[in-house]
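Subject: design request, 456 residues
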């Protein structure tokens, strides 16, 4: 059955006949419909050929020929849409990918959690403080964070503000990439000002110099530039949570539907019900698609999802992002690998070592222990290898800023350090040094990591 035939009973609005979880309760439905209609008339944020290119890269990663690095903020904010913030995100992704490229000796596909990560699932619809109960804050795309009745009312106009911020972000990213910012010949463009003191700095500089010198050597021998090293494509991804927002930017191109809010949307476990609205919507779009897989995901459930979301076993279509936690990965991952393999569908396995390792401190901070993050990641690589599978990517919440949100790492951050520079509104992120330490571990540069730990 062709993909176009499989979609004859699908439309961008068909999800509205299914149960939609994690959706805001808008008090004015007419205002929501008006905002969606206005958004649907605006130009798409990404293009169908960009989406198709990413799908080819993911298909290569499924075959073990590439590695996917996905990283960025847990939740973007409108206020954080600044040139400095965007550049910091690009710099850390580029530096990490350079280290991975050096160690893995294969292309690295970069997907930023950016230009649309404005909505977040919540464990409860309401929040209570000092006896007052209000709707939970669901991200800047939906309502506002201050704890007042007016701020917490879902506002349809915010989906237009989110579109604008995403467009500004993507426009700036494209301008930087096209202007040579991501040229592998000039990794000095990616230096973050505050990290000169870092124990990682010297090792990173050695790697950057080695790659730059190698490129110069090969180009001098060949007598011409190696064009694909002159730019590093950056793709955008976000959790496809707010279905009205996704629907409004769904366009038909060459007889196929695309979700053009982003290159790479993913479905969280809270919205992965096989009969639910999110699975119904995303089964019909052509984008490469991620699905978060965590504790509670049974083999049968996973196989049903694969059958619905990739009925034609299309390469590059489906990425499974497992987030099991350091304590459950040993027991939980093997049956999921076996279940996916039994379907015959090509999938890309990606490890999210962040979300299964979240905890709260006695001081009220949400944090993650770096040792648990590394432990889950190492176990995932080993389990896939032992089962004849390929772990082809990593999904991280990180920032290029000098924050103190996760405990541990090269500088041995402790619980008492969290209050010093804790800036996340939702979940804790790896800072620059912690992110680079993860990159070096993935690249196989463990001797360098161990020496940094001792130095720290």
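Subject: RE: design request

Done. Sequence follows.
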């Amino acid at each position: 059955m062709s993909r176009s035939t499989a979609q004859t009973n699908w439309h961008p609005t068909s999800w509205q006949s299914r149960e939609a979880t994690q959706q805001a309760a808008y008090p004015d439905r007419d205002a929501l419909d008006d905002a969606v209609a206005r958004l649907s008339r605006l130009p798409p944020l990404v293009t169908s050929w960009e989406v198709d290119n990413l799908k080819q890269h993911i298909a290569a990663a499924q075959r073990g020929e590439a590695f996917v690095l996905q990283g960025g903020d847990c939740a973007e904010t409108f206020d954080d849409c600044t040139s400095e913030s965007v550049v910091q995100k690009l710099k850390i992704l580029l530096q990490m990918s350079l280290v991975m490229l050096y160690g893995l000796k294969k292309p690295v596909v970069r997907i930023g959690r950016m230009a649309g990560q404005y909505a977040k699932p919540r464990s409860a619809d309401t929040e209570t403080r000092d006896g007052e109960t209000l709707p939970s804050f669901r991200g800047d795309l939906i309502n506002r964070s201050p704890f007042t009745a007016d701020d917490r009312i879902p506002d349809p106009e915010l989906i237009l503000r989110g579109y604008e911020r995403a467009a500004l972000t993507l426009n700036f990213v494209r301008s930087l990439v096209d202007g040579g910012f991501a040229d592998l010949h000039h990794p000095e463009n990616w230096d973050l000002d505050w990290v000169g003191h870092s124990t990682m700095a010297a090792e990173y500089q050695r790697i950057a110099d080695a790659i730059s010198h190698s490129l110069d050597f090969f180009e001098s021998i060949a007598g011409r530039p190696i064009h694909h090293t002159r730019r590093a494509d950056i793709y955008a991804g976000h959790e496809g949570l707010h279905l009205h927002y996704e629907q409004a930017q769904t366009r038909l191109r060459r007889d196929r539907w695309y979700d053009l809010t982003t290159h790479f949307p993913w479905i969280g476990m809270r919205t992965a019900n096989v009969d639910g609205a999110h699975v119904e919507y995303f089964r019909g779009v052509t984008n490469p698609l991620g699905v978060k897989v965590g504790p509670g995901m049974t083999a049968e459930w996973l196989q049903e999802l694969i059958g619905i979301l990739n009925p034609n076993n299309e390469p590059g279509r489906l990425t499974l992002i497992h987030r099991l936690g350091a304590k459950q990965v040993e027991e939980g991952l093997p049956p999921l690998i076996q279940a996916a393999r039994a379907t015959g569908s090509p999938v890309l396995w990606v490890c999210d070592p962040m979300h299964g390792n979240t905890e709260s401190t006695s001081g009220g901070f949400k944090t993650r222990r770096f040792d648990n993050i590394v432990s889950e990641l190492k176990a995932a690589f080993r389990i896939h290898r032992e089962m004849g599978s390929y772990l082809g990517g990593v999904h991280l919440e990180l920032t290029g800023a000098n924050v103190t949100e996760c405990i541990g790492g090269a500088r041995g951050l402790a619980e008492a350090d969290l209050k010093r520079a804790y800036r996340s509104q939702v979940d804790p992120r790896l800072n620059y040094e912690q992110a680079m330490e993860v990159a070096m571990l993935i690249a196989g540069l463990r001797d360098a990591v161990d020496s940094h730990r001792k130095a720290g």
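The longest strand covers residues 391-397.
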